[in-house]
Specification:
Layout lengths: L1 H35 L7 E4 L2 H4 L4 H11 L7 E5 L8 H14 L2 E7 L6 H6 L4 E4 L1 H6 L4 H16 L3 E4 L5 H7 L1
Parallel strand pairs: 1-2, 2-3, 3-4, 4-5
Length: 178
Amino acid sequence: THTIRSSASTLAGSITILVDFVLRPAIADLAAMQALRPDRRLAVGVNVAPRQLIDPEFVIRALADLRAHKLEPDQLVLEITEQAFEANLEAVAENLRGFAEAGVSIAVDDFGTGYSSLRYLQLLPVEIMKIDKTFVDEIASEPRACKLVSSITAMASVLDLQLVAEGIETEDQLRILQ
C-alpha cells in the first residue's frame, strides 16, 4: 500500500512538472513566433491535466511565464477535458476564474466524449467548445452524428461560445460543418 501511495504521489507531481514542462516552452515558442510576426496577433493552446487545475500556484506560474515573455494573457488558451470536471470542482473553478479574469481563454476539449454536464458550462468561465474528432469523422455518414453536432452548434451559439471542430479531413465534413 505504501508503494502505491508513493507512486501515486510521484505521478501527481510528475503531471505538474510535465504540464509546466509543456506550458513554459509553448509560451517561449509563442513569444519567438510573435517576434517574427509582429503584424499578427498569435495565440497558443495548451492542454492542461485535471490535476494541474487544482494546483493553487498554477495560475501564478502561468501568468508569470506570460509576463516574462512579454505576452498578453489573451494569447493563451487553456484546453481542458471534461475529466477536469471530475476533479475538485471548487478548486478547478477558482483557478479557471483566475485565468479568465486575467484574460486567458478556456476551451473544453473533446466535448461530448467524457463526463458531460451542461451545469459545468454554466459554472465555469468557458469561452470555447471543441467538438471531438469522433463526431466529425462520422458527420457525413451517420445521421445521428450530424444531429448531435447540430445540437452542439446550437448550444454553443446560444451560450455565446466559440466553436471549434477537430479533425476535419474531407470536403464533405467541412461543407456540413459550415
